[in-house]
């Protein structure tokens, strides 16, 4: 007789929920990395523009072009500020997904342990039945031999 766990569908559901939570965490981490890369690009753009402004100042560029570049620096500062907010939001999302995944992992572990305990109990019962069958066969043989001897 083969072991069949009555709640196997629940175990499968918990495993699927854990897998889905892993995907959600992976997506959140990917979004965080994208936001961090965009932030880094904005900061690099700002640093490059500041270098250009310094070079233009040394080469006696027009005031209007310097003002235009300075306005763009302010714009980049605003973008960097917004992107910092986006990065923090993405970090919170990653943390929430990690917590959610941890809960799903605990749920799955509880059900897997319950299945393992049920399987061990089933195996012990099967061994006991087998032993009882062997004992009964031995008793029948002994009785048959004893009956012939009389």
UniProtKB/TrEMBL annotation:
<keyword id="KW-1003">Cell membrane</keyword>
<keyword id="KW-0969">Cilium</keyword>
<dbReference type="GO" id="GO:0005886">
    <property type="term" value="C:plasma membrane"/>
</dbReference>
<dbReference type="Pfam" id="PF02050">
    <property type="entry name" value="FliJ"/>
</dbReference>
<dbReference type="InterPro" id="IPR053716">
    <property type="entry name" value="Flag_assembly_chemotaxis_eff"/>
</dbReference>
<keyword id="KW-0472">Membrane</keyword>
<dbReference type="GO" id="GO:0071973">
    <property type="term" value="P:bacterial-type flagellum-dependent cell motility"/>
</dbReference>
<keyword id="KW-0966">Cell projection</keyword>
<keyword id="KW-0282">Flagellum</keyword>
<protein>
    <recommendedName>
        <fullName>Flagellar FliJ protein</fullName>
    </recommendedName>
</protein>
<dbReference type="GO" id="GO:0015031">
    <property type="term" value="P:protein transport"/>
</dbReference>
<dbReference type="GO" id="GO:0009288">
    <property type="term" value="C:bacterial-type flagellum"/>
</dbReference>
<keyword id="KW-1005">Bacterial flagellum biogenesis</keyword>
<dbReference type="GO" id="GO:0044781">
    <property type="term" value="P:bacterial-type flagellum organization"/>
</dbReference>
<keyword id="KW-1006">Bacterial flagellum protein export</keyword>
<dbReference type="GO" id="GO:0006935">
    <property type="term" value="P:chemotaxis"/>
</dbReference>
<keyword id="KW-0653">Protein transport</keyword>
<keyword id="KW-0813">Transport</keyword>
<keyword id="KW-0145">Chemotaxis</keyword>
<comment type="similarity">
    <text>Belongs to the FliJ family.</text>
</comment>
<dbReference type="InterPro" id="IPR012823">
    <property type="entry name" value="Flagell_FliJ"/>
</dbReference>
């Amino acid at each position: 007789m083969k072991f069949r766990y009555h709640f196997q569908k629940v175990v499968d559901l918990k495993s699927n929920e854990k897998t889905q939570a892993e995907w959600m965490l992976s997506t959140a981490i990917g979004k965080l990395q994208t936001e961090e890369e965009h932030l880094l690009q904005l900061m690099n753009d700002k640093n490059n523009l500041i270098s250009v402004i310094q070079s233009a100042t040394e080469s006696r560029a027009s005031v209007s072009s310097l003002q235009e570049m300075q306005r763009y620096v302010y714009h980049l500062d605003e973008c960097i500020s917004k992107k910092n907010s986006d990065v923090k939001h993405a970090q919170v999302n990653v943390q929430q997904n990690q917590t959610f995944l941890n809960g799903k992992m605990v749920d799955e572990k509880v059900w897997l342990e319950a299945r393992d305990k049920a399987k061990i109990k089933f195996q012990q019962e099967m061994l006991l039945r087998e032993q009882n069958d062997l004992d009964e066969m031995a008793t029948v043989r002994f009785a048959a031999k004893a009956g012939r001897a009389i």
